[in-house]
UniProtKB/TrEMBL annotation:
Keywords: Glycosyltransferase, Membrane, Transferase, Transmembrane, Transmembrane helix. It comes from the Eukaryota. The keyword Membrane applies. This is Alpha-1-2-galactosyltransferase. Residues 1-20 are annotated as: Disordered. InterPro entries: Glyco_trans_34, Nucleotide-diphossugar_trans. The chain crosses the membrane at residues 31-49. Belongs to the glycosyltransferase 34 family. The keyword Coiled coil does not apply.
Length: 312
């Protein structure tokens, strides 16, 4: 009778490790893990602190001058006498308060075939480069006159308390039924862009921007070639309505104020009519007519503003 032989053991059995050797190996492995973890922590600390690139110092705007008044003139759209009076009007007001003016021609800027009304945007950007320490920039269309020299922009319009009482909150950006509305929780110190509405929508003929990185971003966005290529019916005004409604970053800095605060009209057919003591009067329709139309419209206000400025 034959019995099966037991299986033959391997001729190369694994080496026997004494108990103490196995414990030493485990300890060495644990020490390696601890060392690796420690080095990783040190590297992360070095990466986020010791090797961190120093942030550039925060830009400090001194407020010198406090305000720059910007206007881009279309010489062919209005008479030369009107332009002379409009420039004198802005310079007199600026001199009274230590402001500066940036009065340029719309033709100074390459608009790549876009309507000349777009020139207001690069004109503002140009003024910001020329006066980097100015606190505020007030764009005022050519068809406007400053009527009340006693009112200062930084107090009458842009003061934080004044803004909080004058800004219209939870207002449809484009009347009457836009679902996008001005922020209800916005504080005066958060506002960097102030403008008004008239009976047709946003009015880009008089607006104020607070100097800073956001202002540069906003103007660059507004002047993007893509928006200029859309051929909006009202050019830069409709482009502005578009970006305000679709870019929360811009809406979050916007305050819409009552029209007469910075943008009263000479006639009530398009918006709130000018009243004595208002800071400015605008003639919004005159640039679409003959070059003499703005001169005729402004004549009745000429003695009033010159008297207010002590020029007559």
């Amino acid at each position: 009778m034959h019995f099966a032989y037991p299986p033959r053991k391997s001729s190369n059995p694994p080496p026997f490790l004494p108990r103490s050797s196995r414990i030493s190996t485990l300890r060495r492995n644990r020490l390696k893990l601890v060392a690796i973890a420690g080095l990783s922590i040190i590297f992360l600390l070095w990466l986020f602190s010791g090797n961190k690139t120093k942030a550039s110092p925060k830009r400090v705007i001194t407020g010198t001058p406090p305000v720059v008044i910007v206007t881009a003139f279309e010489e062919k759209a209005v008479g030369s006498e009107f332009i002379r009076n409009a420039k004198s009007n802005r310079r007199e007001y600026a001199n009274m308060h230590g402001y500066k003016t940036h009065l340029v021609s719309s033709g100074d800027y390459d608009l790549n075939g876009s309507p000349l009304s777009w020139a207001k945007v690069p004109a503002m950007r140009h003024a910001m480069a020329k006066y980097p320490n100015a606190r505020f920039f007030w764009y005022l269309d050519q068809n406007s006159l400053i009527m009340n020299p006693s009112l200062k922009v930084e107090d009458y319009v842009m003061g934080a308390r004044k803004l909080e009482t004058s800004m219209i909150k939870d207002l449809p950006v484009v009347p009457p039924d836009s679902i996008i509305k001005t922020f209800s929780h916005l504080k005066g110190d958060d506002v960097s862009f102030v403008l008004t509405q008239d009976k047709e929508g946003l009015s880009a003929g008089s607006f104020i921007i607070r100097n800073g990185d956001w202002a540069e971003f906003f103007l660059d966005t507004w002047f993007d070639p893509l928006y200029r290529s859309y051929n909006f019916q009202k050019a830069e005004t409709h482009a502005l309505e578009h970006i305000v409604q679709w870019h929360p970053t811009i809406l979050s800095k916007l305050a819409i104020v009552p029209q007469r605060l910075i943008n009263a009209y000479s006639k009530s057919s398009q918006g709130e009519q000018y009243k004595e003591e208002d800071i400015v009067v605008r003639f919004p329709g005159c640039v679409t007519g003959s070059p003499s139309e703005c001169e005729e419209e402004a004549k009745r206000f000429l003695p009033q503003w010159q008297k207010a400025f002590g020029l007559s």
